[in-house]
Design brief:
The structure holds two protein chains of two kinds. Chain A is α/β, with parallel strands linked by helices. Chain A contains 21 helices and 31 strands. Chain A has a six-stranded mixed beta sheet with strand order 25-27-26-31-24-30. A five-stranded parallel beta sheet of chain A has the order 3-2-1-8-9. A three-stranded parallel beta sheet of chain A has the order 10-11-12, with no helix packed on it. Chain B is of the alpha+beta class. Chain B has six helices and eight strands; from the N terminus they run H-H-E-E-E-H-H-E-E-H-E-E-H-E. Chain B starts with a helix and ends in a 5-residue tail after the last strand. The chains are: A alpha/beta, B alpha+beta.
Chain lengths: ~800, ~190
């Protein structure tokens, strides 16, 4: 999230598209309601009428997988009707930037496409630079190659008629939403967007979000109280775990994982983003300080300038290597791995194409499964269709402590890092995950100390001194993440003050690239300082009156509650919206008042810098040349879709998605055997694969088993009645479900054809309860977004049929 | 007082009846007050944050003199939820008090059809030995192009957004020190 949950109350218009906030983030609805109580308009756009829709002022339907068409039409509407915020667009976005004349777009393909590689050479998407290396701009926005004109041209194709053909949303419904949301282009109006996996889990997931970023940037809604792009993430600490680098492509705090061609730390540092524009802060220029400080937190005293701070001890990817989820399980299926950790995860139910995932596990020599409850992953060897006598995988199932049985912090979607305390002991011999990790590594190290082992340096040199009174000490790790001064610094370059060796750094501003500081995760620096544990704070002051609560817990970075917040002021530093004064420049005191400013430079009108400090150009990207599938979003059909021809172009599916074609991977598009669009989703009473909810009597009683929602029209067509047991089937698998026949779903008219949509929750699994049903992911395909490789679980093709009752056995008389 | 499911229903039932009869002119609010007092009398309060979705609601966990969880409820002082909780957050109590929780270290030997209970010491020793064996057998110092990669190709990991920040950071450090590159978790799916 750029903003945070309480901030929803500051919006004039709230759009929930790509999510179901009332059912999946129920308590946050309090703040939507608070906005509505003050007159805000709440819009829900979704394939299905949910409890969110029931509370919406405007609800409109669209077919799963057509959000870019819907938003493309909105961008066109905003431009055609001049609803955009002209000051903001000119000053705070790249609308005025001039693009390489070789850039083009034709029939669904951007320039630079190589069909043999199914990839783009993005060099023609570059922004033009002048002789000083600064981006060329035309502040009149008239240059035919400026971003604004290219944007207009690209989205002029998204007419109401075409959008309706693709999405199935009637034209009057489109206009209703476009008009209501477009109204937030006025400087004193603000709109926010709340999305979840309904946007991410598509082969165009990133571009769904990009399309909305364009809308928000045109309307001047970024960096504003009540605005922003807000991902409602699914897990209590998925923000924190992402921040901690538990993904193949990032070290903690989004430092890129080194690739093999970057032999030395100096090579790695050469890839640091640069800008020659003196008005661009380009915060990522500080990356070398964060990388050196991270390596110091990993290898301690063993990391020295002479050995590149241990840079070569950490593993490197091959150049361009993708080791993300779908590849990981593809490799496991091929037998690449002997060992596997499923730590606090249940991939046998959560992974797309779960049937393949379960088969892949049979190829392992050993698996470690850490969880609170038994689950389909740890017990895969005795699951449906498995013969334990033929499965060699050794499995260790380790019991761990629950959240209230240990101490530590988690980070919510609004980047609030909040401390939790231990209330009770874990049951039996269960132990906190941290204790298990700590001890397991000690044992591995002991083996390498004792006997010969391959390349023992990273293991022997690892800084692993987190013991307090004979036990693993979580506060020591929290401090390591914040960072230390490792030497006395008599006059720090940041503020000319003296700092003592062994003290905690006040923030990442104090980190150095020469080994004199350590920091485990630069964005968390300032969370645990000499002033104490910031995440544990519980003071409810609210100086701005906007609900920022700056002394409640702590938010990364540096306790900034709304990021890019300098985009909320004019060139003199005055709030553009006097009703929501997030930040104001105090000229006399030469300081900002309000939220922690997104970089404390003076206002742009004096001597300041652009507000989007994490972007090399300092402005929001209407044109985004950094992605694999194009600088502008474009509608492509899902890999599995109900129509032969993309209404927008001759490219039916995204031209750059990776197609897995071997083994168990199968797909069926426009196949009469699988005629219905299917989406997976969640219910309030369950969570993810259900490991932490199916075993709770109160929750399983409320939602006891797998169901399939379908329209009255489809039920009639398939002769299914409410409550019938049905089979939902794709080319990859089938699951049974109880039919819920409901007017919450309705057929769509897609380019003249009737298209039915069905929906199923993904909380169930064979292990418990016994008659609860199976995982919806047995149906979903191995296909991902080209940028993130997040699987397309929200739009695939399925069939649904009633389980035919066996005719009663006829007794024959002899 | 131990709250079983039955007594919980009695208490909540009494509340519902009280409201209904209240509408008829009787005041049974004392029943609610009495029930409330019994439930958390003398209990210790510990604050936590909900373990389910990412809203970050505050919850108070009540424990009795033996350290056993006897109740959990929304933290009224928390600025995000102001005491409110959804169905899952309200059920947090049943994560702490649940006979289905894993309480033993379990081991499934190759080709076996059952779990058997083992000690932490035994399991962690064996896992460590497995890690070393897999790592040593699959370690790649240089790739096909001759570039130094120093990585373990034969081990993968998924998880976890269910861990605390400090544990996530420690786990990431642990995996990378072993040379593992196939590191993924919930954020990808």
């Amino acid at each position: 999230m750029t903003n945070h949950y309480i901030d929803f109350r500051n919006a004039d218009v709230i759009l929930n598209m790509g999510g179901n906030v009332a059912e999946n983030h129920p308590v946050s609805f309090k703040w939507i309601q608070a906005a509505r109580d003050k007159g805000a308009v709440f819009i829900h756009v979704d394939p299905r009428f949910t409890r969110t829709s029931a509370k919406a002022d405007i609800f409109v339907r669209l077919r799963s997988g057509t959000d870019i068409a819907f938003l493309g039409g909105m961008i066109k509407y905003i431009l055609d009707n001049k609803l955009y915020d002209e000051f903001y667009v000119k000053n705070y976005t790249n609308a005025s930037f001039v693009v390489n004349p070789k850039y083009s777009f034709d029939d669904g393909l951007f320039s630079g496409y190589d069909p043999t590689k199914r990839a783009y050479d993005a060099s023609t998407w570059a922004l033009e630079k002048d002789e000083n290396g600064i981006s060329k701009r035309d502040m009149t926005l008239q240059h035919e190659l400026c971003v604004f004109q290219l944007l207009r041209k690209h989205f002029s194709r998204y007419t109401l008629q075409k959008v309706t053909e693709i999405t199935g949303t009637p034209e009057e419904d489109l206009t209703k939403v476009y008009k209501a949301y477009g109204a937030t282009g006025a400087p004193d109006k603000v709109g926010t967007e709340l999305y979840a996996m309904g946007w991410c889990q598509h082969t165009v997931g990133v571009q769904n979000i990009r399309a909305m970023c364009i809308v928000q940037s045109l309307l001047g809604n970024m960096g504003i109280a009540g605005g922003g792009i807000n991902a409602l993430r699914g897990e209590s600490n998925v923000q924190g775990s992402t921040d901690a680098g538990l993904l193949y492509n990032v070290w903690p705090a989004y430092l890129p994982t080194p690739q093999a061609h970057l032999t030395t730390l100096a090579d790695y540092n050469k890839t640091t983003p640069t800008s020659k524009d003196p008005r661009s802060v380009n915060w990522w220029k500080n990356r070398p300080k964060y990388a050196a400080s991270y390596l110091k937190s990993v290898f301690g005293n063993k990391a020295a300038k002479e050995n590149d701070f241990g840079y070569s001890w950490l593993p490197k990817l091959d150049q361009g290597q993708d080791a993300s989820w779908l590849y990981l399980f593809d490799e496991m299926y091929k037998g690449t791995f002997t060992g596997f950790f499923a730590w606090g995860m249940n991939p046998a139910c959560s992974g797309a194409h779960a049937g393949k995932v379960r088969q892949a596990m049979t190829k392992l020599d050993w698996m470690v499964n850490v969880n609170l409850f038994d689950n389909e992953t740890g017990s895969f060897w005795k699951g449906p269709g498995m013969n334990p006598k033929k499965i060699r995988t050794e499995v260790f199932q380790l019991p761990c402590a629950a959240s209230m049985e240990k101490e530590g912090s988690i980070s919510n979607s609004g980047r609030w890092m909040q401390w939790r305390y231990k209330a009770t002991n874990p049951p039996g011999v269960a132990r906190p995950d941290g204790d298990i990790i700590y001890e397991l590594f000690n044992k591995v190290r002991a083996l390498y100390e004792k006997g010969k082992g391959v390349f023992p340096e990273p293991i022997l040199n690892l800084k692993w001194d987190y013991e307090t009174n004979g036990h693993f000490g979580i506060h020591k790790v929290a401090k390591e993440i914040n960072g230390y001064f490792l030497e006395d610094i008599p006059e720090h370059p940041a503020d000319k003050k003296a700092y003592k060796k062994g003290t905690l750094v006040p923030s990442f501003v104090y980190l150095l690239d020469d080994g004199r500081t350590s920091c485990g995760s630069w964005i968390y620096s300032a969370s645990y300082t000499e002033a104490g544990n910031m995440a544990a704070r519980r003071k409810k002051t609210d100086p701005t009156g906007l609900g920022l609560y700056p002394e409640w817990a702590w938010a990364w970075p540096v306790n900034r509650r709304i990021i890019y917040n300098r985009a909320s002021v004019d060139l003199d530093g005055n709030p553009r919206d006097p009703n929501r004064p997030l930040l104001k420049w105090d000229a006399a005191g030469k300081q900002w008042v309000g939220d922690v400013p997104d970089n404390a430079v003076p206002p742009m009108g004096t001597d300041g810098a652009y507000p989007f400090i994490m972007k090399p150009d300092g402005v929001a990207s209407l044109f985004g040349p950094g992605l694999k599938d194009g600088p502008f979003p474009e509608h492509y059909e899902p890999l599995e879709c109900p129509i032969e021809k993309n209404v927008m172009s001759n490219q039916r599916i995204s031209p750059v998605i990776k197609i897995f074609e071997e083994g168990l991977d199968k797909f069926a598009t426009c196949d009469p055997r699988y005629p219905f669009v299917c989406s997976t989703y969640r219910v309030t009473e369950h969570w993810q694969t259900g490991v932490l909810t199916r075993w709770l009597p109160w929750l399983i009683e409320a939602e006891p088993q797998m169901f399939c929602e379908m329209s009255l029209e489809l039920a009639r067509l398939k002769e299914i009645s409410n409550g019938d047991k049905v089979i939902v089937e794709t080319s990859r698998g089938k699951v049974w479900a109880v039919a819920i026949v409901t007017s919450r779903l309705k057929p769509f008219n897609i380019a003249g054809n009737i298209v039915h949509q069905i929906g199923i929750p993904w909380h169930y699994g064979w292990i418990h309860p016994k008659d609860g049903g199976e995982s919806a992911n047995l149906l979903t395909p191995t296909i991902g977004d080209p940028n993130t490789m997040i699987p397309e679980s929200k739009a695939f093709m399925a069939n649904v049929k009633k389980i035919t009752q066996q005719p009663a056995k006829r007794t024959t008389r002899s | 007082m131990k709250i079983t499911r039955r007594t919980f229903l009695k208490i909540s039932g009494a509340t519902a009846v009280g409201t209904w009869i209240g509408g008829l002119g009787f005041d049974l609010s004392w029943a609610e007050v009495y029930a409330q007092e019994l439930r958390i009398k003398g209990a210790k309060e510990t604050t936590t944050i909900c373990c389910y979705c990412s809203v970050g609601c505050g919850i108070i966990v009540h424990t009795n003199a033996h350290g056993k969880v006897i109740n959990s409820e929304g933290d009224p002082d928390h600025p995000i939820n102001e005491g409110a909780l959804c169905a899952k957050g309200s059920a947090l109590y049943q994560i702490a008090v649940n006979e289905n929780r894993l309480q033993k270290v379990l081991y499934r030997a190759p080709y076996s059809n059952t779990w058997r209970g083992v000690t932490w010491e035994w399991a962690l020793d064996k896992i460590a030995a497995n890690i070393k064996k897999s790592r040593d057998a699959s370690f790649m110092e240089k790739n096909a192009k001759g570039q130094v990669v120093n990585r373990t190709n034969g081990i993968a990991s998924v998880g976890s957004a269910a861990l605390d920040n400090e544990e996530c950071w420690l786990y990431s450090k642990f995996l990378r020190s072993l040379g593992i590159i196939y590191i993924e978790h919930q954020a990808r799916i």
